Amino acid sequence: MSAGAKRAGVERPGGPVCVSAGYFGPADTPLFAHLHRPAVEAWSGRAVVLCPPFGYEAMSSHRLFRELADALAEAGHVCLRFDPPGTGDSADPPGHDGGAAMAVWPAAIVSAMDHLQTVLGGAAIVLVGLRLGALMAAQAAQGRSDVLGWVAMAPVLRGRQMVRECKALGLATQARTGLGAAGAPAGAIEAGGFRLSANDVAALSALALPDLARPAPHGLVLARPDQTDAVQSLPWFDGHNSEAWSIQPFEGYDALMQVPHFAQVPAQAVAAVCAWVGRLPVAPKATPAGEMLRGAVRLSGGDVVEHAVAVPAGGIALRGVLTLPTQGMPDRAVVMINTGAEHRVGSNRMYVGWARHWARRGCAALRVDLSGLGNSPPHRRGHANHVHNAYAVEDLRAICVWLRQQHGIPTLHLVGLCSGAFHAFTAAVEDVPFQSVTPINQMVYFWQDKMPLLGEAHDAVAVAVAAGAGRALRDPARWRKLMRGEVRVGLILGAVARRGWQRAVALGRSLLRATGWPLTNDLPTVLRQLAARGTRVHWVFSAGEPGLVMLREQGGRALRQAQTRGHVGVTVLPETDHTFTQQAMQQRLFDAVDAALALDVHSPAGGRVSAASGASTREAA
Question: Which SS3 state, helix, strand or coil, does residue 152 take?
Fold first, then answer.
C-alpha cells in the first residue's frame, strides 16, 4: 500500500482554508466527509455541520455545499460536510435494503457533532440543512445542549410531504420513459434515480417539524415563497425576524435545483448563512486535538478497503476514492469519471456499488473527480463546472501514472457515461494508456470550441428530435397537439433539416475517404488507429440513443469491420433511459459493462471469477 493511500485524507491549502477528506463514525458504517478548517488562530469557536438533502437534490446541490463550506471556513468556522449512510461515498449500513437508510440519518448527524466535539476539544455546533437535511438536523438536535444554531434552507416540513413528492417524481419518470417501476420491491419508491425502501418510507412518514422541540436557541429559515406561512406557524418559532429567529427568502432555489451542469449556486443564500452564523454569540475556543478524519476504512464484511486519495495532476490534486480488496494489490483497475457535472459517485450513485463489487472480486476501482468537477479544483487556467474540460485528457494521463507508479497496477480500464463517455473515448484517441475504454451513451465524438452543451444546435439533439418527429407522424394524439398549436414546429423543422445536412456530410466524407483525401475528426481513421495500438473500445447504449445513430452513421463500414475483428464492441440495452433512473436499469447496465470489461480477476476467496452476463443485445458485425 502506498503512503499516499494510507494518509488520513490529503490536505490542500486554499488561502486561509485547509480541506481534508476522509472518514469518521462507527466502524460498521464509516461516513465519508470533507473537513474545511480555517487557520487555528482564526477559528471562531463555532463548528458547522452541513446536512445534505436526498437523492437528485443532493447531486444538484453538491457544488453549493462545497462552496458554502469554503465560505464558512474562510469566515473562521470549522465546517464538516458529509455523506449520510447509504449515500455518496459513505458506507451502506448493516442490513442495507437498497434504499437510503433514512432511519439512521439523524444518528449520523449526531455522530458528526460528536466527532467535531472530540477533535476540536469542544465547540458551539451549528446545523445547516437543505430540504430533507434540515428536517433530519432538527431531529438530531433533540435533547442536545451544544447546538447553538439551526439553519434550514427550503426545509421539508413533514416527511409525508417528501414521500408524496418522491412518488410524483417516480410516476413522472415512468411517464417520460414509458417504462414501469420494474424490479422495485413492494412499498419502495423509485425517485429520480434513487430508491426509498419501504423502511425509508415508514421512517420518513414519522417525521414532522411541528412535532419536534425547538432544535436550537437560534434559528434561520431560508424559505421558498410557498413555505413562509407554514414556517411561521411552527409552534416553536418566535416570530418573523426576531432577535433569535428569522425567516429570509431563499433567492435562487429554482436555479439551484437543475441538473448539476446547469445548477447555479445561490450566492445570496451563501452570503446570508455566513453572515447569520457570524452573528451568533462567540463561544470560548478550545485547542483542537485528535485525528480529524481517517484516511482509509474497511467496509462491513471486511473484504474491501476504501481510501480517500488525491491524485497529483499538473499542480492540483484530483479528489477520489480508491477501493481495494484486502488481500493483496490487484494487477488491474477500473477508473470511473464524472457524468456531466455530477460528482464522482456517478449517476444515481452507481459507481459506488460497482467499485465495491469489483474490489470484492479482486479488482481495484477508482472513482475520481476530473479537474473543476465535484471536489477537484480547476487548473489555474481552467474553469469550475466545465463539463467538456480541455484538461480532462491530461487529468486521465496523470491518473494512469499515479496508479502505475504509486500502486503498481499495470492494467487499467476506463468507464464514463455521457460527457464521461466523450472523455473516455478522447483519452483512447489521444493514446492515454488505458487497455480498454467503455463509453456509455456517448453523444459527442469530436468536440469543438463553443459547441453548446445541450440545445437546438447540438447534433445529438437534432437526431433525437428528428427521430421523435418521425414517430409522431404515426400518433394521432400528436396530430391533435399540432392542430392546437402545442408543437414547436420550427424546432422540428430545424432538426429535420439538420439531420439531412448530417447525412449529406457523412456521404460526402465517405466519398472523400474513398479517394484517399485526408480528413480531420474522422471516426473510421480513429478506429483503425485504436486497433493498431491494441486499445479496445466497447460502447454501451440505451436503445434509441442518438449517439448510437451517430456512431453507426459516422463509423460506417470501418465500424462494422472493427466489430468483426473484435477491436470494437457495441452493446444496446432495451428498456433503459439515458441516465438509468431505475435500479433495474442500473443492474442491466452494470451487467453489460462488466461483460464488456471481461475482468478475469482473482476473487478474495481464491480462484478466477468470470464476468457477469448481461441482459442486453450485442450487435452483430
Answer: strand
Q: Could you give the strand order of the β-sheet that contains 536-542, starting from the edge strand earlier in sequence?
A: 296-298, 304-313, 316-325, 364-368, 332-336, 411-417, 436-440, 536-542, 568-573, 617-618
Torsion sign, CA atoms 143, 149, 266, 368: negative
At residue 230, the 3 state secondary structure works out as helix
The x, y and z cell numbers of residue 337, run together, are 469519471
How far apart CA 542 and CA 410 sit, in angstroms, is 31
Indicate the length of the chain as a whole number: 621
Residue 257 to residues 60, 61, 261, 434, Cα–Cα distance (Å): 6, 7, 11, 36
Q: Helices in 158-278 by DSSP H: which ranges?
A: 159-177, 198-205, 228-232, 253-256, 267-278
Q: How far apart are CA 174 and CA 382, in angstroms?
A: 38
CB 438, CB 597: distance < 8 Å: yes
In sequence order, the β-bridge partners of residue 95 are: none
Going from the C-alpha of 33 to that of each of 6, 16, 284, 511, 580, the distances in angstroms are 16, 20, 25, 56, 27
Q: State how far the Cα of 90 lies from the Cα of 204, in Å rounded to an integer.
A: 20
User: Closest by alpha carbon to 12, among 59, 62, 70?
Assistant: 70
541-563 residue pLDDT tens: 999 898 998 899 889 889 999 99
User: Which tens digits make up the pLDDT trace of 177-192?
Assistant: 666 666 677 888 888 8
Range 535-546 burial, b when 16+ CB lie within 10 A, else e: bbbbbbbbebbb
Q: HSE, CB side, 13 Å, CA atoms: give it for residue 68.
A: 32
Rounded distance, CA 563 to CA 557, Å? 10
Torsion angle defined by CA atoms of residues 86, 406, 384 and 382, in that order, rounded to the nearest 10 degrees = -170
Q: What is the pLDDT of residues 18-30, one digit of tens each?
A: 999 999 999 999 9
Nearest in space to 358 (alpha carbons), one of 339, 335, 338, 342: 335
For residue 621, pLDDT beyond 70 = no
Residues in Cβ contact with 3 at an 8 Å cutoff, skipping those fewer than 6 apart: none
